[in-house]
Amino acid sequence: MMGYFYFIFFFLLGIFIAYKTFYELPRVLRIWIGGLIGLLGMMWLVIPIAFFTGFTFFTHLVALIIMGGFSLLWFFLYHKPKDQPVVSIDYDTRIFWLVLPFSIYFIYLFYTHYLLPGQDGLYCGGNAYGDLAFHLGIITSFKEQQLFPPQYSIFPGIRMGYPFLVDSFTSSLYLLGMSLRHSLLLSSISMAVLLLTSFVVFAQEVLKKWSSTVIATLLFFINGGLGFFYYFPKNLSPIFSEIANSPTHLFDQNIIWSNVICDLLIPQRTTLGGWAFLLLALWSLYRAINTSQRKYYFMSGLIAGLLPMIHTHSFLAFIVVALIWFIFFLVKSDGKRKYVLDWMVLVLPAFLLSFPQLIYWTFPQSVSGGYLRLMPGWTSKTDFWPWFWIKNTGLFFILLLLALFSPKNRLKAFYLPAIVLFILAELVIFQPWDWDNIKILFVWYMFSVIFVASYLEQIIQKISKKSWRALFVGIVVGICILSGTFSLIREAVSSIRLFSIDDLKVAEFVQQHTPADAIFLTSDFHNNPISVLAGRNIVMGYEGWLWSHGIDYQKRAADIRELFLISENFDHLVKKYQIDYILLSSQERSKYGEKIFQLIQKFPLVYQSQNSMILGVSERVRPLHDSILNQDSN
């Protein structure tokens, strides 16, 4: 119950702060902003305290008190400016009906994709199979080990430079008494609903028309290219059965513009939270530029400054957008001194809050990992460059080109930062895996769907009959979202087992009977119950994750091979990595062979199930299991 109380308490106080501060906004917008303020408080308030007290129950209690105390101070100290007239703002509330169907779909996917219990284990959806295990490992290690700053549980000794706040927020709920599955569901659903709301509010702020906002929302969340036509008409059945491919992700055809829900928001949880805050920061900045109200500049800078450890790509994208808008509107501004002073209200909090995160967490890992490199054309490979984007985004890309060259499009100033983002992502790779540039390109796409929706509205106005307008929009949007629609259907029916019953038993034993800081020697399979479910450290985890985070794992991988093959360096390596336990399962057997079972002669067996054995290695853990065995015999 404490976890639910913690969640509701922060959300209500966030809404209270928003109601007090943004008095001129409609009620629904204040609830949206307040929800994000509450979410931000849950993510961030524990962090500075955790440096001193760890990621503990006490730390969360202090964060709760701080949130309550700040809200109380805000109630007494913040007052409406007396010299500023209150101008009510009208929003077409129909836009919020757009959030409902997408929210229902998200809830269904989370329910079926996040550790759904089955007769033979826990299940997930197809696209969640890879990344979900990584995020679970962060969540459980925070809760179990309660150490701060965190290290990679799949590579102990390396400080975690990956933006972890979305997962640590889920860990907070897990630590405070909620189950792992319920913590995942509540955190994910709240972020998804807030993200959906953020997008429709930002689109409506720019477009001003409900119909255009509907078009932009459909184009963004049901995005796709020409992938469907590689199945049609002879090979439709594989759409719903293939594991790796989908109409928006066909490796053989170099179609990699994945559907945003299926391949980013469901499996990659940091994107879910990061975009919700990014869109709030962009909305606030856009509103600040148009109203000159400094509180919107400040909120935009505050959110941006807290973004790096929520979602680093979103922070980078915001910096580019803000810089381009600043330069463009500075040139057009009459009162340049006031304009610069207004922007300083954004720059100061953004710099002061982001710089320590970048220095302490982001830069050390990105520099050592050799992230940045030139790669013109992104992943277009041998494809003719325009054809690459046409087959990946379909009719949409042609509409975008037409919108760019339309002389009457009023949003060209708005769209200028998106052009810079696109060029940047087309030339420079920002992480080891080149595909991850899609996280920046999708911010370009956010702007692009709004830009194209505005252009379509211009075309629609030239059609006299309403029925012909509806038919035109239906055909154009339908073609644009056809592949995305089939990808969403495929994702809804996909299911794959992530953990077996044996995995769950292993994880339960490890959680209940091993020290929280114990180190296990295992193979590098990604759905490892030791690191993913039990939250314990393993000498080295899945190589794909380590490579994508820029971690040099080759030497450690070679050492693990020596350990399992019981080389002459075995005893030295056990001491080097401070190994407490060894897991012997089908994974270790398939990679290193039958010789691994000779380890049973060296170390006592502390746990055995149908498919797994755990050996006690270090002197410090053996007495623990001797006492357990004595209790069992009594």
Summarize the structure.
The protein is mainly alpha-helical and 634 residues long. The protein has helices at 2-21, 27-44, 46-53, 57-77, 99-113, 128-145, 165-175, 180-207, 210-221, 228-231, 260-265, 269-291, 294-305, 312-332, 336-368, 385-393, 395-404, 412-427, 438-461, 466-493, 501-513, 529-532, 543-548, 554-564, 570-576, 586-592, 622-633, and strands spanning 116-118, 121-124, 373-374, 428-429, 496-500, 519-521, 537-538, 581-585, 605-608, 612-616.
Give a structural overview.
The chain has helices at residues 2-21, 27-44, 46-53, 57-77, 99-113, 128-145, 165-175, 180-207, 210-221, 228-231, 260-265, 269-291, 294-305, 312-332, 336-368, 385-393, 395-404, 412-427, 438-461, 466-493, 501-513, 529-532, 543-548, 554-564, 570-576, 586-592, 622-633; strands at 116-118, 121-124, 373-374, 428-429, 496-500, 519-521, 537-538, 581-585, 605-608, 612-616. The protein is mainly α. The strands form three sheets. A five-stranded mixed β-sheet has the order 7-6-8-10-9. Helix 2 (27-44) crosses helix 7. The radius of gyration is 26 Å and the shape is globular.
